[in-house]
Amino acid sequence: MEKKIYLDNAATTRTRPEVVDAMLPYFTEKFGNPSSVYEFASQNKKAVDEARGTIAKALGADITEVYFTGGGTEADNWAIKATAEAYKAKGNHIITTKIEHHAVLHTCEYLEKNGYEVTYLDVDEYGIVKLDQLEKAIKPTTILITIMFANNEIGTIQPIKEIGEIAKRNKILFHTDAVQAFAQVDINVNDMGIDMLSASAHKLNGPKGIGFLYIKKGVKIRSLIHGGAQERQRRAGTENVPGVVGFGKAVEIAMATMEDRAKKEIELRDYLIKRVLAEVPYTRLNGDRVKRLPNNANFSFQFIEGESLLIMLDMNHICASSGSACTSGSLDPSHVLLAIGLPHEIAHGSLRLTLSEDNTVEEIDYTVEKIKEIVDKLRKMSPLYEDFTRKR
Amino acid sequence: MEKVVVGMSGGVDSSVAAYLLKEQGYDVIGVTMQIWQDEDICSMEENGGCCGLSAVEDARRVASALNIPYYVMNFKQEFKENVIDYFVAEYLQARTPNPCIACNRYVKWESLLKRSMDIGASYIATGHYASIEKLNNGRYAIKKSVTRAKDQTYALYNLTQFQLEHTLMPVGAYAKDEIRAMANQLQLPVANKPDSQEICFVSDNNYAGFISDYLNKEDDSLAGSVKTKNAKNIMNTTSLIKNQYNGLTPGNFINTAGEVIGQHRGLIHYTIGQRKGLNLAMGQPVFVLELRPETNEVVIGNSNEVFTDRLYANRLNFMAIEDIVDEITVEAKIRYSHKGARCRVKRTAEDEVLCIFEEPQRAITPGQAVVFYQDDYVVGGGTIMSKR
CB-based contact (8 Å) between B37 and chain A? Predict the structure, then answer.
């Protein structure tokens, strides 16, 4: 099989043709700047607001509460840094978890270097935040709780509603990085007590370079990017009109198809998990069996190096990942897998497969066969496996 | 088609190595080894180094131009355990290590070769100006390059027979100018990097600063959950030394008669043969002759006293010969920049030889490697021992 099998949809997704079609006119004939006064540009402003409306509806939010950004990372940075700044008279303490995306973790570490105090909550063996620990971590100086909606590596979905209730009860702002969850699972910001939420278009078949931050009315954070008066004076810079339009279209489709898509993905995912666990010995599934994203499977294969597995899958035209890719494209042992209690050597041998509705059973079958073949080959060359089999 | 993994730095030599192997019909895969440790890579970037982030970007461009698959492999853990931990431990024991040798043996060869074979490669290849030959006695040995403008064999003496058997050095057959010309002709987007002789993970050559930072960090990480076996070993070493002095503790300069002649800033600031930075007014140039960790003393002497005619070496590795049975005469290099000197090498214990030079050599430094050559072949070598 020479055809590429793409199983890394948590990294990014294929932009849908309908999305591209919706975007194209905004590169060509409708190129105006939404801030301009003339009629020609006003259609662009309208297009931006239509997309904003689609997104607000998907969140159960008001249209004035959605602010476009250059992506999920910017939205996370904005929510956390601007809250720290705006609420510093109230306190300097932030609560997050050990399994956040680096967009949140590194932002928190940056604030720590600038005089803020950050608590990194542990998670249980499935990657779920312990609510009693969250309550205990709250101090009079706590100004923000930032906990991801669903994890990008192991797919675990957090008890967001319960976290929102705790935040509300303690009058603390609650931000969630929903980059992996938005338009994949049901979200209602009001029901869930979410004050701020970050998301990104390219994780849901939209274009790259566009995201948003939902900011609930009454949350007093200011701009992170200074300049013009765009986005209600909260995010300067000429709007990425084609990106916004594409994002709107992608959300429209993703919301309309969510139920069917999730059903299909879960079926395929469960088939994959079942086969791998049954047919590859000394393998574990990371994350929660049920409270997980429909398209996520994450395995650890004992005695092997995940990096070698990935390279060999690539040689067989299978795109997969392990941990989160860093700048160089090389892999560190995942902080998420370490946080759920995996020892270093097992965390090293992990593989993340994230599906899309485009994947087929044949692709999964081929992938499972290749995984079996490669893991077996790597184990035969592994001194760890040799030690293990000798001891038995 | 046999697979070969080329270790690529984005520089001219490894880039042309990849090209030559592709021309020779190998199935070439480019790999850059990620070994840097810090989140903050700025200092590494300034240093250049063969494995920094700019190396990755440069190598990726070259691989793309050559149309070969390219990957970055993570060897941070291997590098930390085998190179940095060793480097620190050696300094704390008042020796002057050569981390490049450890990196070659354990990271660039052992780990890269293992992972390359994992993904189906038969060989790894590098851009070294040297060649590997199978000798009549059946052994593999490295031979100095035809050009000899820059000897790259000193830091390779510790490679095993297995490693040599599975290594290709395609640029060794050419002169540096020829390789450069090839790169130009092919319009490879190669970086012109200066050949650095500084240690890639230490910025500004500030070893003492690096070591004290490192020990502070290790203290923290040991308190946390991250523990590596070598970190523990080092901590044992350091706590051993820490009990008395920690390498950063000031102590006495003494002369060869044992008289105190001044105060030093801590042993890790000094190396054998050092003249600069002693701040001693003795009326004549003076040099470091010896470091004594057990008493935290630095022995000082004049320019004659810094010459000695013998050394003991252990942690031996043999290349062109299987072992030294009785005694051999070789050309020996006692540091990277040393031009080599004739000496007799005698076996004195299981893993120990005595080298006696025809002429006394300047600043024989414990921790550095002594490498033996015969007719441009690497015969073997070892680590120079502290005074017996």
Answer: no
